[in-house]
Amino acid sequence: MTYSVGQPVRISARVHAGHHRTPAYVKGARGTVERVHDRFADPETRAYGGDGTPHRQLYLVGIDLRSVTPRDHGSRDRVFVDVFEHWLEPIE
Amino acid sequence: MSHDHDHPHAPLPRADEPPVAARVRALEELLVERGVLDRDTIRRRIDWLVSRTPADGARLVARAWVDEAFREQLLADARGAALELGLDPGPSPVVVALENTESVHHMVVCTLCSCYPKALLGPPPDWYKSLAYRSRAVNDPRAVLSEFGVALDDDVELRVVDSTADIRYVVVPRRPPGTEHLSESELAGLVTRDSMIGVAQPSLSR
Q: Do B36 and B61 lie in a common domain?
């Protein structure tokens, strides 16, 4: 795995035509790796009859809610999203 | 109409069938016709789903409230903890239990569809699948919680957990005060489905 717990990351903002499991509202957001899950079948190929290999590493990423929606959230409120590794980018 | 052939097929359509039911039936017909699924498999999956209830999840929570070692196991490996209690954790690869405390509150949503820990909580409530909950849980979660009757202090860290992939999340709610005298099964009776989604708090005064 490339990322470890506590590491700051950015969710890729790229456009992807077709099925994928990265919600639009977190694309481009900065967050922190909260958990390193297992590797799982890639939904982007499984959706079209593939077997989902190679399996992709999945992470739980915590993102400040204020950076993704405009409401008056608590200062420590976050959204935790499961994101596959190929949707994450490192932040210095 | 003649109907004396002997191959099994889906129930015939009704005149008042809603459009979504017609679409599901058409999809089922196609999947069976192409050999992707057979009707027995579909029936067995439906029977399994409707046999699941939040009582199973409540047993996990109650045991964690009274048994510290089990609590640690549940938080580290919820699937293993469920198996230890003789529960069926279902086909999902990984179940993760998230503990609510004085300072951290978790609530679960699936903004992309309706992912839900069905094996431990049963079929999801309709509101969980609604566009309103799926968008507002992220857009204005404290207002949503307040509508469900949960008032969080400002200094509590709210974590909205969006189950976007293979992990199924179950919330371990806080044990209500004044329950020290209750047995494990009485405690399990306090643990509601909604409290394991993170939109309610178990209480004695139900």
A: no
Contact A79 B165 (CB under 8 A): no
Q: Which residue has the tokens 């089922």?
A: B28
Q: Are B61 and B30 in contact (CB under 8 A)?
A: no
B74-88 burial code (b ≥16 CB/10 A, e <16) = beebbbebbeeeebe
Q: Do B94 and B127 sit in the same domain of this protein? A: yes
Closest-CA distance of chain B to residue A84, Å: 8
User: Lowest-confidence range among A44-53, B11-20, B107-116, B136-145?
Assistant: B11-20
CATH of the domain at B109: 3.90.330.10
Q: Please, which pLDDT band fits residue B132 given cuts at 50, 70 and 90?
A: very high
Can you read off the two tokens belonging to residue A70?
Answer: 């405009």
Q: Is B156 contained in some domain? A: yes
Catalytic residue (choose from B2, B114, B183, B185): B114
Q: How many domains does chain A have?
A: 1
* Counted domains in chain B: 2
Q: What is the pLDDT of residue B205?
A: 73
B57 with B27, same domain? no
Chain B residues whose beta carbon lies within 8 Å of the beta carbon of residue A82: 162-167
